[in-house]
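Discussion board: Methods & Data

I've been asked by a reviewer to show the raw model output for two of the constructs in my manuscript, not just the figures. I'm not sure how much to include, so I'm pasting the format here to get opinions. Each protein appears as its amino acid sequence followed by a line of C-alpha cells. Is this the kind of thing reviewers expect to see in a supplement, or should I convert it first? Here is construct A:
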Amino acid sequence: MNSFYSALLLIPLLISGFQAQASDETPLATYQALKPELASKLAWATLKACRKAGYQTSVAVVDRFGNIQVLLRDQLAGMHSPEVATRKAWTAASFKSATDVMMHETQAGKVQSGVRFASNAMMVAGGIPVEVGGVLVGALGVSGAPGGDKDQECAMKGLAAIEDDLPL
C-alpha cells in the first residue's frame, strides 16, 4: 500500500516534468555581445575620429553588463579621461540610453534626478549604447575632447565606422 501512495505522489511531479520539457523554455539565458576584435575595432575607429578632430581622448568599450572590453588612452589625454570614458560607457549600457539624453533627463528637479547617485553613473555626453536589432550588445564612452558634445560626436563617428560589421 505504501508503494501505491508513493506512486500517486509521483504522478504530479512527472506531469510537471513533462510540461517543462514540452514548453521549450530553458532555465539559461542567452545573449549577444561584441567579440573582442570588433570591440577593439570600435575603440580604434573612435580614437581615430577624435584625433582627426584634433582631440586627445580616452575611449572605453564595455560589454552589455558594463565590464570593460577595451580601454584606449591617447598619449596626451587627461589623466581623468580613462575613468570618465569608462563611466560614460557603463552609464550608456546600464540605462540603455545615450548619456547626452541622460544628462538632460536627470537634471536637478526632474523625476529621474536620483539616478545620478548610482555609483558608476556619469551623466555627461559622450556615452552611447551599441545595439543590434534593438538588443544591447555593448556601449562606448569617450572623454577628453573639449566638451561632452565633442566626445559624443567622436563616439557616433566611431560607431558609424563599424556599422557594416554589425549583423542586421
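Construct B, same format:
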Amino acid sequence: MLKSIPAALKKLHYSPKVSPQYSPYKHTPIIYGKKGAQQMASNNHSQYLPKSDIKYMQSVAGTFLYNARALNYTMLPALNEISSTQAKPTKYTQEECQQIMDYAATYPNVYVRYHASDMVLTIDSDAAYLVLPNARSRIAGYFQLNDNPQRVSHPDVNRVILIECKALRHVVSSAAEAETAGVFHNT
C-alpha cells in the first residue's frame, strides 16, 4: 500500500506542514486536582462546527481507518476519538483530524513485518486418580513455549505461559479415564 497515504492526503486537500508530527494523538497534560478534570471536559465540548464540515470529518476518519486496521495500529486511538465525535464535530475534532493527517504525512509508508518463530507450544498433562474427597480426581497441565520440544529437561520458568490445576467435576472409573479427562481439558 505504498501510494495509499499520499493519495488519501491529496483527496483530502491536505497542505503539508513544515515540521513533522510524531504522534497521532494529542498529548493530555497531567493536571492534578479537581480543576484539571473540569478543564479537560471543557476542551472536548467547545463550539460545534457547521454542518458542511461534518462530511469532511467523516471522510478523514473513513479514509484512514482501513490503513490503521491493516498496518498502522498507532492511529486507532486517534481515529476512535475522531469517529466518536464526528456526528457533532467541534474545533477540537478538527484539530485531531489535522494532527492525524500530519502524522500520516510524516509516516506515509508504514509496514508490518512478520518473522517465523521456532517456538512450539508444549503441554504436559497429568492426573491423580481418587485423591480428593467424594471419589474425585485432580488434573494438572503445564503449558510452555519451547524452542526444541524434544529436549524438555527441567521446566524453564521463563517459558511457562499457564499452569492449570483443578479437580474434575465428575467421578471417573479408572486412572486411564482420569488421564484422558486431563488431556481433554488441557487441549
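Answer (T.O., handling editor elsewhere):
This is acceptable in a supplement if you add a one-line summary per construct. For B, something like: The CA atoms of residues 25 and 77 lie 7 Å apart.
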